[in-house]
Write a structure and sequence with these properties.
Helix content is 30%, strand content 22%. The longest helix has 20 residues. A ten-stranded mixed β-sheet has the order 5-3-2-4-8-1-9-12-11-10, with helices on both faces. It has a five-stranded antiparallel β-sheet with strand order 15-14-13-16-17.
Length: 517
């Protein structure tokens, strides 16, 4: 447990938030660097002092761009993102840092630097991030240059987190690499947990995400400010094809956006020195960070998250609150399974009348790479300021329900010393569970634990199975890619289905026995 030797005015506090969405034509659209810089200007304005506040920063932290993630596959990028943002703002913080891939990163960085502020390691931190993939693609289609999306100048930045591949080579060889291919595996496992048939569960996914579209429709910053019915979201149509069964296009996070967001954090003492009005201050009351078992084949099951369960408990205990005392939520919503698992672990009903987002969710507000949670924090700050004394909780998730961070906020200052438990003290207990043995070269009779059918624009292309041999050993496999097999796997419930698995040249194939369904 970290100690807090500082006086009460050294508690961390968020003082400014800025967001923008750029819908301009490709000829005029902003670059990621311009979006990050402008979001920080807006955050400084929101705090009160304006751009003079940026000059007082000793840390500038930029969230990793999608172009720098392992899944980017040759997208253009910059050598040093934080240095370019600092240059655009004409500031020179002592620390200019960059993060690796992870949707959990903005909340994790707030948690980490809140502790550093308390310990006197820094005074004022600028957090910023953006994505402008829509702009870049629009310019390419229009035959325009994308010089603003890349730069080879300068030295590489100091990294504040470490990049780690999300999958083993064996997992990646079978298609476990992109979130859109993996989250459907969780969703079908949840259907089994809830005991629902395919049609019932399909309807329930639409009912779960319909309220998110309503929030997005009322958010002027949303990329898709359109309310859609539950049926429109979940049912396959000409404009809403399957991506990874059972997810249709409207149930997938959308990364091709032009959006930036920034927040500014300091201590209560420093905020008062800078003349920040009390009504701008939003306090972090509770927080937690943990990882589930890193690789998918190592998970205890595909319908739970010990990490979310643990950090929810830690954060609520730190804040001195129960989940029933929270007024607002923003549950990370890249896909329906992420929402359902988080709600189940935190004790939130899927139809909670408080709502599950203040922002609108990644498929509808927009999913700007690693930076959605910065938007969620900024939006939560606005909501809490409008209702002083209320409390908001948000969680953020990286990779495949792998990395998790959570924060609880309020305009009400903490009643006692700010004290965060070191995540390293509880990380081991998160992964302390028995997991099945795993075989890379399975052979013989077997059953499906969970599965998906991955689709392209022309229809089903690949079946992906996590299964069990007769002795309980787990394996990963693809299925035969003939149209009859793939279509049958979409219309029939394949959970627990029997078949045979074989391994040839590093690739496993599970052949379902449809006569036993």
């Amino acid at each position: 447990m970290s100690e807090n030797p500082q006086n009460q005015t050294d508690i961390p506090v968020l003082i400014g938030a800025g967001q923008l969405t750029d819908r301009r034509a490709p000829e005029e659209v902003a670059t990621p660097i311009e979006l990050m810089a402008e979001a920080l200007r807006k955050a400084a304005e929101d705090a009160g002092p304006g751009e003079s506040l940026l000059q007082a920063a000793d840390v500038l932290l930029a969230m990793g761009l999608t172009a720098d993630s392992p899944e980017a596959q040759g997208l253009p990028s910059y050598v040093n993102v934080p240095a370019l943002v600092a240059g655009a703002l004409n500031i020179s913080p002592a620390s200019q840092l960059y993060t690796a891939t992870g949707g959990n990163t903005p909340q994790m960085m707030v948690n980490r630097y809140a502790q550093q502020i308390v310990e006197g390691q820094c005074e004022l931190v600028l957090f910023t991030g953006a994505e402008a993939l829509a702009g870049m693609i629009g310019r390419l289609k229009a035959g325009l240059d994308i010089d603003g999306w890349q730069s080879q100048e300068g030295e590489p930045p100091e990294m504040v987190t470490t990049e780690r591949l999300p999958a083993t080579p064996h997992e990646a060889a079978h298609g476990i690499l992109l979130p859109a291919s993996v989250y459907p595996l969780f969703e079908n496992a949840l259907r089994g947990k809830y005991g629902e048939d395919i049609d019932t569960h399909q309807r329930r996914m639409g009912e779960l995400f319909h309220p998110l579209t309503r929030v997005a429709s009322e958010n002027p910053l949303a990329w898709f400010p359109v309310e859609r019915s539950a049926e429109e979201l979940s049912q396959v149509s000409e404009s809403n094809r399957y991506v990874g069964f059972p997810y249709t296009k409207y149930l997938n996070s959308i990364i091709q956006v032009n959006m930036g967001a920034a927040i500014i954090m300091t201590s209560q003492r420093k905020a008062r020195e800078l003349g920040i009005p009390e009504d701008r201050m939003v306090y972090l009351h509770g927080c937690g960070d943990a990882n589930d078992r890193w690789y998918l084949h190592e998970r205890e099951n595909y319908c739970s998250s010990p990490a979310i369960r643990t950090i929810g408990r830690k954060a609520l205990e730190m804040a001195g609150k129960t989940i029933d005392e929270i007024d607002y939520f923003d549950i990370y919503s890249c896909f329906p399974s992420a929402v359902q698992i988080a709600c189940d672990e935190l004790g939130i009903d899927h139809r909670d009348p408080r709502g599950l987002t203040v922002t609108g969710g990644l498929p509808y507000f927009g999913g700007p790479g690693n930076n959605y949670a910065t938007h969620a924090i900024a939006t939560m700050m606005d909501r809490l300021r409008a209702k002083p004394g209320s409390f908001g909780l948000l969680n953020a998730n990286g990779w495949f329900i792998t990395k998790h961070s959570l924060g609880i906020y309020s305009t009400e200052p903490p009643s006692g010393p700010w004290c965060r438990e070191d995540p390293a003290d509880y990380q081991d207990e998160v992964v302390d569970q028995q997991v099945p043995a795993f075989a890379e070269t399975p052979e013989g009779p077997s059953t499906i634990e969970t599965y998906t059918v991955l689709h392209g624009r022309k229809g089903p292309e690949r079946g992906l199975v996590i299964g069990r041999l007769a002795d309980g050993t787990r394996f990963i496999a693809n299925t035969p890619d003939d149209a009859e097999t793939l279509q049958s796997m979409v219309v029939k419930d394949m959970l627990g289905a029997h078949g045979d698995v074989s391994s040839r040249e590093g690739i496993n194939t599970f052949t379902p026995d449809f006569t036993r369904l």
